[in-house]
Amino acid sequence: MSDIAVQIEHLKKSYGAVQVLRDISLSVATGERVVICGPSGSGKSTLIRCINRLERHDGGRIVVDGVELTDDVRALRAIRRDVGMVFQNFNLFPHLSVLENCTLAPIQVRGMSKAAAEELAMGLLARVRIPEQARKFPAQLSGGQQQRVAIARALAMQPRIMLFDEPTSALDPEMIKEVLDTMIELAGTGMTMLVVTHEMGFARQVADRVVFMDGGEIVEQGVPAALFANPRTERLQNFLGRILQG
Amino acid sequence: MSGLLRSERVRAWVWQAVILGGLGLLIWWLAGNAARNLAARHIATGFGFLDNAAAIPIAESPISYVPSESSYGRALAVGVLNTLKASAVGIVLAMLIGTAVGIARLSPNRLASVCAASYVELLRDTPPLLQLLMWYSALQALPAARQALHAGPVVLSNRGLILPVLEWQTAHWAALAALVIVAGFIWRSAARWRWALLCVPMLVWAAMGAPFEMERPVLRGFNFVGGMTLSPEFAALVVGLVVYTSAYIAEIVRSGIQAIPKGQWEAAGALGFSRAQTLRLVILPQALRVILPPLASEFLNLTKNTTLAVAIGYQDIMSIGETTLNQTGQSIETIVLVMAFFLIVSLAISGGIGVLETRLARVGAR
Amino acid sequence: MIAALRKTLFGGWVSSIVTVLLALVLWRGAAGLLDWAVVRGHGFGATPAMCRADGGACWAVIGEKYRFILFGRYPYEAQWRPAIVIGVFLALFGVSAFRACWRPMLGLVWVGALAIVLALMWGGFAGMEYVPQDSWGGLPITLLLSSVGCVLAFPLAVLVALGRRARSMPAVRAVCVLYVELVRGVPLVALLFMASVMLPLFLPEGLNPDKLLRAQVAIILFAAAYLAEVVRGGLQALPRGQYEAADALGLSYWQTQLRVILPQALRLVVPPLVNTFTGLFKDTSLVLIIGLLDLLTAGKVALADPVWQPFGEEVYLLLAAIYFAFCFFLSRASRRLEAS
């Protein structure tokens, strides 16, 4: 277990002629909470999706917990076991109950017994405050509840790093708080988190560092209080102006 | 080495090699057996047999064919033409009837829509082969040639429907050429008087002497001579397939029309269009785009179903192929030819509909 | 209510003409049919001579031939066995019509039922005499060919559908596309001919599968191509997020397919699956062309008897009624399954 959770060096990615990530270098320490923000199309989602290989990077290096991310199947499996991801659209498995959603991966990938997995899952569902929904199906839950199940499902794999891809963007406003509260509680336990989000309040409260991206590059990064109070570049000033206006 | 095996890409290629290798082994084994069995039965391979004289009697043929003189190649060509003849006529008629039934299905007239629905349900829930057999036995029940039914120069008996045929002359070729040119002009031009040009072919024909000799069917012995005969086999095949396929086309047209949002009907109604006008000018042009892909599928099904002709004695490519196969023993080559024919037709139909789709997409895109 | 009916039937002058014409045609047709079938029709006791006398329907042909049409050349005393087989199939179809029953267990029920059916047809145990395949015939053959065809084609179809979507293995994808397009481009008649004429050619000397097996192989390969397209439709309908979530959790390819993707995809395409089965049920009638004794062939062979030859319409109507009953039920079931 190293000090550096995620090390990204000179990362590049293109979709055909469009270059989505230009020479990104970022280092995330174990236990650090990093919020990545920026206008749409800045490549922030692509960046974190490269970390667990949902996208293949074209150039540069990604090292997760000391293991480099390459075409090596064993390395990939090890990384995916230790990195959990929460999606904007939840992506729960509709044909399985809430409990089964959470126990599927521990049983299949980590080889846990059904009883142990269920115990673990119930504990996590209690932590995200919906243990009574265990036997229900995702379609019967509200958006906020579904996203909390998604967080519990990712945590069931006992990851060392959690990635969040705009976790509240698909939620109705009244449900955003319950999900953010869950994420704040998670941050309090010392989990390494990389969160792509527009929720600046969350960033201010929890983030150790905020990274501002635009046009495929990291423009500015720093402690949230300083960054929001004194944005140095014009791009960040414009972005903050637009965000805080809306 | 083990590091290499852990790469995703290498694994993918290894899996492909294993699967393809397995298939390759299977094919090699089958081919080996075939070669051995063919040699044991002294059957040659290759397509040389196509030049041999064919002892296949063929009842109807669009091109000249003489049994025991013409080659197997020619016999198969006759089969291809017979299949294409039945398919072409079938596709056009099925399209017309199917569209009418599909529209009737959505008619506010309760009787019409119930009739159309029953028509579709009855025809789709019985096998096409059974329907063909029923039509054929009904046509067999027609009176014999000597007691044939006459409607003017048209004759109907259990030997088929015989129509009088125009004796084609140069004047007619000229008129046809004029018609094609005029049609092309009408299609492209937007001039108001362009429909009047249709009298040009008539004038051409009149100028060249206006020949109009009809060859009428005449009873000689037990059968009729002259005129154009539609055999009961051809008629049963076409009628049976048209009726069967029209049921499927009706459903396709119906769901195509129902796919158009109700707002289109309402807007057209608000503009004062009648139901028929709305259908013709607003709904059908849009529905056409939804209808084309499954329609291509149905046209192909009709063409494939013409092979059912084997059961009622119409000599399509399958029937002649079977006889060829039995006579020459060259089963592999014959089947390959037959399958190649159908694959080419399948490509042609999908290609044709694909071209239509792109043209529709360009014109009047949403 | 009468007023509403009048409005729909006689709304405009076009509508009125259509109504009058249709009513006329239907009346003449129904009256003619009733006259032929019932009024002048002869019941089961009639002789062919009596029937020929006034041209009415001769239902005696059915009384005479129904056992042959339904059971083929199966030994007379043992015909209770194919009768039970038909009952098993009816029960199977009935159970499958309910969405609630569509669980993985259903697959096992189908396989189990088919095993029972085959055991009953062959016999050779528990006091039942052994009956070889060439004596089988009629409705059980139709049911067997279509059911065994679909059940055995299904795993192949799933593999081909998955293979067609394998982005990392272009050669496998090409093979799957080739197989599907080839089989869908040629008529089933051609495939049946291939199987019946060419199969012995491709097998080692001495291995000569019987006609039923050859037809069954052709039908399995045929069904698999069409089922593969149906399954592929289901796979395509699933949102990418499902694949991504499974990947992010670390599930392997086969774990993802078996536990996340296929359960959802297959559930989505149950109605088209039933429709494909219905089509296959009708298509088994094509074995007439290779001389296998299914329901349709049995009817035709029954008519070859010179005594009963003129009464084709009665037999064809019986066959049509049987096929219609099955297919109508199956299409209604498909619609029910779609709604729930």
The span between the termini of chain A is 42 Å
User: Structural class of chain A, please?
Assistant: alpha/beta
* Helicity level of chain C: over 70%
**Total helix count of chain A?**
9
Largest sheet of chain C: none
Overview of this protein structure:
The complex is a heterotrimer of chains A (246), B (366) and C (340). Chain A is of the alpha/beta class and 246 residues long. Chain A is built from 9 helices and 10 strands. In chain A, the strands form 2 sheets. Chain A has a 6-stranded mixed sheet, with helices on both faces. The longest helix of chain A is centred in the last third of the chain and has 16 residues, at 173-188. The N and C termini of chain A lie far apart (42 Å). Among the domains of chain B are: 2-41; 72-137 and 231-334, Orthogonal Bundle (MetI-like fold), CATH 1.10.3720. In chain B, β1 (149-151) and β2 (154-157) form a beta hairpin. In chain C, α6 (104-122) runs antiparallel to α7 and α7 (139-164) packs across α13 (270-283). Chain C is an all-alpha fold and 340 residues long. The relative contact order of chain C is 0.11. Chain C has helices spanning 2-9, 13-39, 48-54, 60-71, 80-96, 104-122, 139-164, 170-185, 188-202, 211-237, 240-248, 253-268, 270-283, 295-303, 312-339. Chain C is globular, with a radius of gyration of 25 Å. The chains are: A alpha/beta (246), B alpha+beta (366), C mainly alpha (340). Chains in contact: A-B, A-C, B-C. At the B-C interface, α2, α4, α5, α10 and α11 of B face α1, α2, α8, α9 and α15 of C.
Quick tags:
heterotrimer, A: about 250 residues, alpha/beta, 6-stranded mixed beta sheet, 4-stranded antiparallel beta sheet, about 40% helix, C: about 350 residues, mainly alpha, 15 helices, about 75% helix, globular
Short synopsis of the structure:
The complex is a heterotrimer of chains A (246), B (366) and C (340). Chain B is of the alpha+beta class and 366 residues long. Chain B is 65% helix and 7% strand.
